[in-house]
Structures are given as C-alpha cells and as structure tokens.
Design goal:
Blueprint lengths: L1 E2 L9 E4 L6 H5 L4 E4 L8 H6 L6 H10 L6 E5 L3 H13 L4 E5 L7 H22 L5 H6 L11 E6 L4 H10 L3 E4 L14 H4 L11 H19 L10 H8 L4 E9 L4 H12 L4 E6 L6 H16 L17 E7 L3 E8 L4 E8 L4 H16 L8 E5 L11 E2 L2 H12 L5 E5 L4 E6 L5 E7 L7 H10 L4 H7 L14 H13 L4 H22 L6 E4 L6 H11 L3 E2 L7 H13 L2
Helix pairs in contact: 3-4, 5-9, 14-20, 15-17, 18-19
The structure holds iron/sulfur cluster (2 copies).
Protein name: Bifunctional 2-hydroxyacyl-CoA dehydratase/activator domain-containing protein
InterPro entries: ATPase_BadF, ATPase_NBD, CoA_E_activase_dom, Dehydratase_Activator_Redct, FldB/FldC_alpha/beta
GO molecular function: iron-sulfur cluster binding; metal ion binding
Amino acid sequence: MTQNETRPERGLTVHYPCKYVPAELLAGFGAGCWPCTHEAESFDRADELAHPNLCGYGKSLLAHALDPSVHALVLTSCCDVMRRVYDIVRSEGSVDFLWMLDLPHLRGPREVARFRGELMRLAEAFGAWSGREFSLDAALASFDPPVPRTDERVTLLGAHAPLSLVDTCRDELSLHVENGTCTGFRQVASPPSTLARAPRPDCHACGDENEASGLDRFLDWYADALLNQTPCMRMDDVAARGALIDAPGQRGVIYHTMKFCDYYGFEYLEASRTSEVPMLKIETDGTRQSAGQLSTRLKAFDETLRGMAETGGDAHAHADGPVYVLGVDSGSTSTDAVIVDGDGAIVASVIVPTGAKASAGARRAIEEVLGKAGLTDADLTLRVATGYGRGAIDGMDSTITEITCHARGAHFLAPGARTIIDIGGQDSKVIHLDEAGGVTNFVMNDKCAAGTGRFLEATARAMELSLDEFCRVGLEWKHDVKISSMCTVFAESEVVSLVADDTPVADIVHGLDMSVAGKTASLAKRVKAEPPYLMTGGVAQNVGVVRALEDVLGAPVTTHEDSQLCGAIGAALLGLESLG
Ligand code: SF4
Ligand code: SF4
C-alpha cells in the first residue's frame, strides 16, 4: 500500500483491472471507477521497467498506470503479474493512491470474513487519503441494475479482453457478443432495501454513529456480494465456471488466451474437453492483433454458428437460362479459380501464382478461367471470393472465409471426410466436419511459417533441392532424424549443420516431414479430429508429408487431384447454393 501526499486535481477516479475491486464501496467516497481495458500504444516503457515476459495485459496495465492522468489505482492479488505491476508502479511513485487488495480463492464464510477485513482497510486508507467520508446513500445509489443476459449470445471468456478485441468480435459476429472477461462481466447483486434503513443495533463504537454503522452494515453485506459474482478462473469454484460456459442461450464461446499467461490455457483445455458449446480459441499478446487474421477466424466462427457450411446437399440447377458461378480462392502462393454450372459441375478451373498483389493475381486467374470456359464476365451469375486476399478482389458479389469454403469443397471432393487438413504456403488449418459436411470446429496456424509450405520451401532451398526432389527424397529415409526447431530460421541452420555432418539427405527431409506432421497433429488434437482425413492445400502434393501425417495420426490420409482447388470449389458451390 502506498499513499502519496498529493491529492488528485481532477475528479476522483479510481482505475481498476478486476471485477473484484469494490467500485461501489469507493463510490461511497464519491469516487468513480474506470476499468483498465485499453491496449497501450507502445510497450517500450513497460519493456524498460519489467521483464519482456510480462504478459501483454500486464504491460498495457503498466503503461496505463504510468500515465500522468492516473492518480488512483486499485489492484487485486490475481497473479504474479499484478504483483509485479504493483511493485513497479510503487517504485516509480507515479500514482498517488495505490492499493493491492488481497483476494481469496474461495468463497466460504471464513474467506468472506477475511475479505470484509480487507475492504475495511481499503475504506479506511481511501477515506484518509481522499479526505472524504463514506456515504451509504452514495454507495447504494451506485449499483448498476442487473443486466439480463441476451437469449442467443456468444460469450467472450478467458484473459482480460482489450476494448479493440471486444469491438472486433462484435463487428464480425452476427449474434450478440457478451464480454465475460475480467472487467466485462461485473455483476454484483443488488443491495437489499433493508440495508438503507436498518441501523446496526450493536454498533456504538465510534463517534459518528450513523456513518460508521453505515459502513459496517454495508460491508457486512457487500463483502459476500462482491465475492459471489460469477467466478473468474482465479476462483476455485470450477463448477460455477462450467455453468457460465454451458448456460442456456449460449450459442458459442470465444476463448481468449494471452501470450505469457499460463492460467487460461488449462481452463480452455478442460472446457473444450467437457463442453458441447462450440468454442473458438484465440490468442493475443495484448496488442492490436493483425485485424485480417483475427477477422478471418471470427468470421469463420460466425459462419459455423450460422450453419453456412451445413448446405452440404447436392447443388441444384435453378431459374431459367444457364447459370455459372465463379469461385476465387486468393492464397499467399497461388490464386485458384473455378466455374461451376447450375448442376454444380466444374466447367473450368485454373491455378495461377498470386504474385506480389492479390488483386492482380485474382484478375489473371479470372481472365484465364473465363477463357478456358469460353465465357465472359457477363455470363457469370455470381462471383464469390475466399482466401486471405478475398477482400482485395474487384467485382466480387460476396466473400466467404476459407474455413467454410474448404469445408464445402472437401465435402464435394470426398463426401465422407470428417477432418480436413489444409497446409498452404503461409498457414495451416484443421477443420472438423459433421456427417453432412458442416463445420463443427476448426483451428488455424497463421501466425508463423512453422509447419507450412513456406517452412518446407525454405529448408528445401537450404539443402539445394528442387521442390519435386524434396517431395520424393524423404520417402527413402533409413534413420530417424529429429528436427527439434520448428522456427523456419532455426530449422534452416539445424539442416545446414546436419548436412555438414554428412547426415543422409533422405533422413533429413523425412525429419522435416515428421516435424510438419507433428505440428499439424497437435492442431488436429485441438479440434478432436477423426478419420477419414482429407488433405488439401499445396503441401498435399508432398507425398512425404502425407505419409508422415499418416504415421503420426495412425490413419490413412487421402488427397484428391483437385485438392488444391478445394477452397475455390467450395466458394463456387456455396455461391450456387445461395441462389436457392
Ligand atoms: S482473473 Fe479474476 S481475479 Fe484476476 S483480474 Fe480477472 S477477474 Fe480479477
Ligand atoms: S493475463 Fe494472466 S498473467 Fe496477465 S494479468 Fe491476467 S491472469 Fe495475470
């Protein structure tokens, strides 16, 4: 606890990062409370003062606390990061009133009594620092009326969600997104009406009997109410947490984990194992994540919840005259275009290199596929784009995420497939399907080249092998070689050392294939993948990786001659089906 002599010049605002901070108690002293939910513009100052491994929220909180406009900050003993932030802010001396509230893990009578004592100490210190007295009326007037939960909703759970994350979720999802993270789900019960009236009969201890007894009576009730909010993951009441996830009306959960925070990963694993509610796991480092990456996952989750991929029935002709639907899949390495007719049959398809600009690659692909089909743009009934560059393509009628399009395309190519493993040039994804081809779950690795085509290309280059040689040579391996590094840069130097040690090339390539397979299998585990497996994307051409995946998954992995076109086929078919 520290209290500087300086008084706040402006309104009395207490900043807080946790829903267990007693906002209503502080309101009794005339203070407003402000949740710390903004990401810092820069982590430079936080990196100077703290270890770089401090979680992103801790860094943002630190940057927030060091802002000259912050005069009062109340933290809770949630985790080591909070304690570290407290220590740094105290040693910097930048905040006039700084308090660490000791928070129990349990909610039994003994813990409530101890917590009441903590709240009383805070009240005394805050009263002394601010020079204000507690007003029971002001405290009681500050309670927010209970907010009824929306009937059909998606809840954002897990680590502290910065405002931009909440906004992005709300922008991309059609259902209402409720923020169930630390400061987003603050719901203290309403005080009983008797609290305002009844004096405490046994309180004669202090001079100002009304005010003192008012604070005592308030805390007698409030400590229990504050602690008995819907528990966060820091509390030991696991059953009540489960109820939050499985509550009626819950259509989906977006589970946010934070880089350098170990707490939420365990809860996510347990929840995804035990709950049937569709869940999307996202990880951020507390900064504004690449909007494109996050947006694709959220949009795909939205499409999954809305059941877009469940339109897995046979495509059918419609309306008068010929129908032609164009699907374009704009990937990092290639752009694929497919035209289907009104019966859902493929009329023409092309695969062209994307090149430096997604829009130019798409233009080339569209010109070529139209030429091949003997059609012009005017003959097209609908144009649908997918893939990471989908937003950059001119003249499209709609866009659908690659997750939904791959699912539809895979169901067309291999109707029985239950898991799609797609490894492209820059990302990899595993999509689990139901029997009708609807997406039940998916996971993407789009943060680094590890386990993708780019990783294999870079290591092939380091070994001076063409891609063709690289795909074949690994099948002739004799001895297991373990490539321990998944980072492309480190793996390249590992490969160079193995070559220098005269390790046979076939063994090294097999080691690389196995490392990609291992990384993909761990993604597959997260979506409860099951056979039959279909592999799509450019790396499906690499028979060494396909065999390695079969080894790791313990089941056959099939490919299809058109598997590279899977996304574009799916886009065209979903477009066709949308025509009704
Ligand atoms: S995890 Fe719980 S205790 Fe920790 S900051 Fe969030 S709400 Fe508070
Ligand atoms: S994200 Fe994790 S480590 Fe960071 S403050 Fe929250 S609970 Fe603590």
